[in-house]
Amino acid sequence: MTAMIGKPVNRVDGPLKVSGQATYAYEHWENDVGQPLYGFIVGATIGNGRIARIDTTRAERAAGVQLVMTHLNAPVQGIPTPDPSVPLPYWVAKPELSSPDIHHYGQPVALVVATTFEQARAASNLVDVEYTAEPGHYEFAARHDQAYAPKTLVMGIATDTAVGDFDSAFAGAEVKIDQRFTTPYEFSQPMEPNVCLAVPHRDGEELTAYVSTQIVSAARARIAKTLLMDPQRIDIVAPYIGGGFGSKLAVHAETILALLAARQLKQPVKVAMTRQQIFQLVGMRTTSSQRVRLGAERDGRLVALAHEATMYANPQEEWAEPMAAFLRSLYAAPNRLTRHRLVPLDLQGNEDVRAPGEAPGLLALESAMDELAHALAMDPVELRIGNEPTRDPERDVPFSDRRLVECMREGAHRFGWEGRPARPGSRRDARWLVGYGMAAASRGHPQAPTKARVRIGADGNAVVQSDMTDIGTGTYTILTQVAAECLGLPMDRVRVELGRSEFPTSWGSGGSWGAANSSNAVRRACEALCEKQRTADGRIPAEGLEAEGEIVGASDDPNFTNYSMSSYGAHFAEVGVDIDTCEIRLRRMLGVFAAGRILNHKTARSQLIGGMIWGVGAALHEEAVIDSRSGAFVNRDLAEYLVPVHADIPEIDAIVLDGFDDKANALGVKGIGELSICGAGASIANAVFNATGVRVRDFPITLDKVLPGLPLAEV
Ligand code: MOS
To answer: Is residue 87 part of a domain?
Structure first.
């Protein structure tokens, strides 16, 4: 058997992508589906209230228009009902145009379908809507008195935990940090927008949805429940996805509306959200206010730890991000407290965005740890090492495989951490104040039920099939490697087919579970196939051989009860802050990660670097701003919602420690999709403090927040 797993091989779908032959959802054309019609979504221009009157006459008379759908003529749809059998809301119904009530700005009030996209968009301006506006609540900071405790966080994670007696231990601690950190609304905003090409068959009795989705099974379930159809009559096709980052775990208005229109018109209809619509129709990461309290002895030993996160949630689609939950496994301290609270507002439902929980949570906690190190005059790495737990400090179970200390030591060594300016604001390089910062990374390792099938023909070529998706991460490549190694075939004799509802079911790509889950299901399928081949004396019959493989969800796997399983890492960043303007520039960055075995060192490194760049965005750039009069996101485009660009990103490197987590699964693999986002922003925030002596606790750290605290430059 040739070792293929881990090799830094190129993407098997790379040539298709760079030559334009990888077909995305919006791009299927006549040969496949016939000439489609184009739908354009009309969004509400109030944030709360109802439609008093809607007149579609002018729009219906416009050139090329085939249909204007509103709440007056939309079909009856399923209503969202909480489903305890699914841990995330993406599998439940999402009706559109189902009532005149408006719950958030931009909510669809009509879909205009026309022969061309331009006609549909032009006619969308001719839909006349009168609203009865009601006062709405859009300001998070003004509504903290409304905060309530959810029953659980997403995936059933506990809302509150307490160990020991936090209050007395904190009161008696020799050194204390008690700070509040705030993080803004953020969006996933992948390159490919949310789109669906809906194709009806047999008079709309059956539907094919070419859709940009991270989870095929969730798309199918949501469509079936919303359109009140048998799921077997719905085909999902999603072979290529142009990024997701959480925004495509669910399908949204584009898919529901395209399918409703296609069914009614008995013709293919495609709908793509505009970039601006994505800011109003797809869930955002909630803004947050996080209080972190750390109590320590003079020697740096933590005696009391508390992390309390308050965030926005839409009570109709309650979704609570586990912002403090990672702390339950991160540092040792005998007295501990974590808490999550939700503030209801009249905005679209919040959803998963890139490492939900850890990403904003570690910005706060790892900044606070840096504040504690400074208060103790300790090295931040040594402070963390001194609080390394030997067992999971809240669950009292062993770690499956941790290596956080190793990540920190290796990173410190490679980065040259010993050259860190000991005193904040003490190092100058020409006009730049220079600082170093570090932070720990931690991300949970979820496991979900996943199936895969493998078939080998008499010609010795194998085909792997799963409804798993490749959202740009490299799924095709890693599954080809796993199947090739397990079957003892060269990679070019293995073809991986993904993203179709007719294939065995998975939870797709999300929550950093996709690679670990699907690779283990494929491995099992290959083992079952090899067993069949052995039984057949090594011969493959003319009709070929086929086998399925399956892994169970975490709740059915005792290792998830008996061990604390996460992936870990450490970030190191160097920034320069302009002594006059306070312009903040990342100068270099290094991440060292431990996530069990790595399936492909090239795609893994790309993904880890991508995650670190998200961390740069969270620290320095990203912020979606709400108009407090309407609940609209005012900077809803990529010119004003800033993300890091090439000029913002200097030398960045990501290193993975070779490993194998034998408790995680048979391949020893854990997820890396989101690990490197976690803590990345805090390492930059800490570097800004080290450069300037100014601590900004309101993210993103922009120059106007640093400038008032900066000592005047010597002239
Ligand atoms: Mo992720 S935010 O579960 O795609």
So the answer is: yes
Q: Which of 153, 352, 507, 513 for mutating ligand 1's site (highest number of atoms within 8 Å of CB)?
A: 352
User: Nearest to residue 518, comparing CAs of 486, 482, 565?
Assistant: 482
Q: What is the CATH number for 521?
A: 3.30.365.10
Please report the atom of ligand 1 found closest to the CA of residue 356.
2
Tell how far the Cα of 199 is from the centroid of ligand 1, in angstroms.
28
- Tokens 């099992």 identify what position? 524
CA of 512 to the centre of ligand 1 (A): 7
- Looking at the domain assignment, is residue 5 inside a domain? no
- The dihedral over CA atoms of 565, 566, 570, 573, expressed in degrees to the nearest 10, equals -170
Q: Is the pTM of this model over 0.85?
A: yes
The residue type at 165: D
Closest atom of ligand 1 relative to the 247 alpha carbon? 4
Rounded CA-CA distance 251/244 in Å is 11
pLDDT tens string 679-705: 999 999 999 999 999 999 999 999 999
Question: Domain for residue 171, yes or no?
Answer: yes
Q: Quick one: 214 and 317 in the same domain? A: no
**Number of domains observed in the structure of the chain:** 3
pLDDT in tens, 522-573: 999 999 999 999 998 888 999 999 999 999 999 999 999 999 999 999 999 9
Q: Please tell me whether residues 486 and 412 are part of one structural domain.
A: no
- For the annotated catalytic residues, the residue numbers are 674
Is 245 near ligand 1, meaning CB less than 6 Å away?
A: yes
Question: In angstroms, what is the span from residue 673 Cα to ligand 1's centroid?
Answer: 9
| Cβ 699 under 6 angstroms from ligand 1 | no
Sole residue written with tokens 């490919």? 192
- Residue 652 contacts residue 588 (beta carbons within 8 Å): yes
Same domain for 332 and 381, yes or no, is: yes
Give the ligand 1 atom nearest the CA of 249: 4
- The stretches of 74-153 forming alpha helices (DSSP H) are 117-124
CA of 246 to the centre of ligand 1 (A): 4
Could you say which of 519, 551, 583 is where a domain stops?
551
Which residue's alpha carbon is nearest to atom 4 within ligand 1?
A: 246
Residue-number span of the structural domain to which 643 is assigned: 154-186+284-445+561-709
